[in-house]
Design a protein that fits this description.
mainly alpha, 79% helix
C-alpha cells in the first residue's frame, strides 16, 4: 500500500500537482513501517520534502530532512542527495551562505563518484545560487557546465534553458530568473523519473 502511494505521489509531483502529491506522500509516510522498510520510508520522506518545498513550505521540508538524518547517513549517496535538497531549499529560502557550503560538498562528491545526473542537477542549483548572489562570472561557469551536462545526458529542454541563460549573460543583460526556475523544475522531474535514482540501498 505504501509503495503504491509513494508512486502516486511522485506522479503528482511530476505533473506539477505538488499539493496533491504532498497529501498522498504524507499518507504514504504514515502508512509505511519505517523499522521494517527504512528505504521505502526514506523514499516517501525525500519525495515529500521536495513536494513541501514546491508548495513554499521549505521550513517543514528542512525539519523533515533533519529528522531523518540518521537513516540518510547509512548511505553516502543518499546522504549527499539529502544535502543537495537542503542546499536547494536554502537558496530558495534566502539562506545562501549555508546553502553554498552544502552545495560545494555535494558537487565534489557527485563528480568524484561519477554521478552524472546528480552533478548536472547540482550545477543547476549552482546557477540559481550565482544569480541570487549577483555573481555573473560564477553564473556563466555554472550555465556552461549545466549545458554540457544536459547535452551529455541527452536532455532537451534543459539544454535550451541553459543556452538561453548563457546568451543573456554573454549579451550583458540580466538573466531571466524565471527561465532558471523552469529549468530547475524540469531537471527535478527528470530526477524523479530516472530509475537509477530511486531511493534504495542499491541506488
Amino acid at each position: 500500500m505504501a509503495r503504491l502511494l509513494i508512486q502516486r505521489g511522485a506522479v503528482e509531483l511530476h505533473r506539477e500537482q505538488a499539493l496533491a502529491g504532498v497529501r498522498i506522500l504524507t499518507r504514504a509516510l504514515e502508512t509505511v513501517d519505517a523499522r521494517r522498510h527504512p528505504w521505502l520510508a526514506l523514499s516517501a520522506v525525500h519525495n515529500l520534502a521536495e513536494g513541501l518545498a514546491d508548495i513554499g513550505r521549505g521550513d517543514v521540508a528542512v525539519a523533515l530532512l533533519i529528522s531523518w538524518e540518521r537513516v540518510y547517513a547509512r548511505d553516502a549517496l543518499l546522504s549527499a542527495r539529502r544535502r543537495w535538497l537542503l542546499a536547494r531549499i536554502g537558496i530558495e529560502s534566502g539562506y545562501t551562505p549555508a546553502a553554498a557550503a552544502l552545495l560545494a560538498e555535494v558537487q565534489h562528491y557527485f563528480r568524484a563518484e561519477g554521478r552524472a545526473l546528480e552533478a548536472t542537477l547540482a550545477e543547476e542549483t549552482s546557477l540559481q545560487l550565482a544569480l541570487v548572489q549577483g555573481d555573473r562570472d560564477a553564473a556563466a561557469v555554472a550555465a556552461g557546465n549545466l549545458y554540457l551536462g544536459a547535452c551529455a545526458l541527452g536532455l532537451g529542454g534543459e539544454q535550451l534553458a541553459a543556452a538561453g541563460v548563457l546568451l543573456e549573460l554573454g549579451g550583458g543583460s540580466s538573466p531571466d530568473v524565471t527561465l532558471v526556475r523552469e529549468c530547475a523544475a524540469s531537471l527535478a522531474r527528470t530526477l524523479r523519473r530516472r530509475p537509477a535514482l530511486d531511493i534504495s540501498p542499491n541506488h
